[in-house]
Design brief:
By secondary structure, the protein is α+β, with helices and mostly antiparallel strands. It contains ten helices and eight strands.
Length: about 350
């Protein structure tokens, strides 16, 4: 009875603590459910959600300490202990989860790459599908998803393919019996057939038995980065073979006896190729990356529309009656487009 009586006496003092705990849970749930899942702008972005939840939980912990039924001196000691704990976590950030969180914030601040970009770091290559607080997810060329710790990306060189385009290249060896002028002409013709712009040929090496060439050109459509190399190499094969040029070194004679004048060029296949368009690898392997980039672009479009809407609303006050109808129509259009984007992003959440 005495224990029960003591508990009932302490219960009123614990009410603020219980209220703060329950309030923190409800606020975190409400922010996560209502603000992020129903607000399409951030529906597919984990970093703002993670940072917000961590910040809310931290505020809840501090308020809970302040609400404890203890003396001010004890509260001060608890807050000091909490500060020391956070300091220790930051101090050990190079070997703990905190390092990835700090690296994630750094990546967002630096904006070295964004969702949908092709990136290469170490032995990893793929398109970015998600930039989180602790890791960045990429979709590789075999359609698998790879999670890279943000600390790894910060501490290692990262190559990002520019959206404005990149250079596609391939190398091959031709014998000295092929004049370099002819080789360059044929290689440029192959690059032109693949749609590459500003193509150029480099002579990389004058070997003992063959000349090494590099054919390269500008690819404006980076979405076709994976298949572009295959298309270029296929065009090089077809162009050189049609011209009767061997893509091989004369040292093949030491391995297989061939007659003088014979060319290592395949004969044309008897059946014609199917005219049906084949799907490109990028249409299959980067489906999640394509979707992530599309959503990211929609968020950017929404931000631009919101900024334009604010400008139009400010402009509306000072417009004449003749221009007022036109401005109001554009405002209505902006609002409708913003609602459509929010609805679409909400469905994708």
């Amino acid at each position: 009875m005495e224990a029960m009586k003591g508990l009932l006496e302490e219960l009123p003092r614990l009410v603020p603590l219980l209220v703060i705990g329950l309030g923190t849970v409800l606020v975190v749930w409400g922010v996560n459910r209502l603000l992020f899942e129903r607000l399409g702008v951030m529906a597919k972005s984990k970093l703002p959600r993670q940072v917000t939840v961590i910040a809310l939980v931290g505020v809840g912990v501090v308020l809970a300490i302040l609400a404890l039924p203890v003396g001010d001196e004890t509260k001060g000691h608890l807050l000091s202990l909490l500060g020391l704990l956070l300091t220790a976590i930051i101090a050990m950030s190079s070997t703990t989860v905190a390092s990835n969180a700090m690296a994630g914030l750094m990546l967002r601040i630096m904006k070295s790459f964004r969702t949908g970009d092709f990136v290469r770091t170490g032995t990893h290559f793929g398109r970015v599908t998600e930039i989180g607080l602790f890791h960045t997810e990429i979709q590789t060329s075999n359609r698998d998803l790879t999670a890279l710790p943000n600390a790894f990306l910060v501490s290692n060189p990262v190559t990002v393919v520019r959206h404005s385009g990149t250079v596609i290249e391939t190398t091959l060896s031709l014998g000295y019996d092929v004049p370099h002028a002819k080789a360059e002409e044929l290689l440029l013709k192959a690059a032109e057939a693949t749609g590459l712009e500003d193509a150029f040929v480099l002579i990389l090496e004058l070997g003992n038995f063959a000349v090494t060439y590099r054919i390269a050109g500008f690819l404006a459509e980076t979405r076709r980065l994976v298949s572009a190399g295959t298309v270029l190499r296929r065009a090089v094969l077809d162009t050189l073979h049609r011209a009767g040029v061997e893509i091989a070194s004369p040292t093949l004679m030491s391995q297989r006896r061939i007659h003088e004048g014979d060319r290592l060029v395949p004969h044309e296949q008897g059946r014609a190729r199917s005219k049906k368009a084949k799907p490109l690898p990028e249409d299959i392997v980067f489906d999640k990356a394509e979707e992530a980039e599309r959503l990211e672009q929609l968020r950017l479009d929404r931000d631009e529309l919101a900024q334009r809407l604010k400008e139009l609303e400010k402009r509306l006050d000072g417009t004449s009656e003749a221009e007022r109808g036109e401005v109001e129509a554009e405002i209505a259009s902006c609002r409708q487009r913003i609602e459509d984007i929010d609805r679409f992003l909400g469905k994708g959440a």
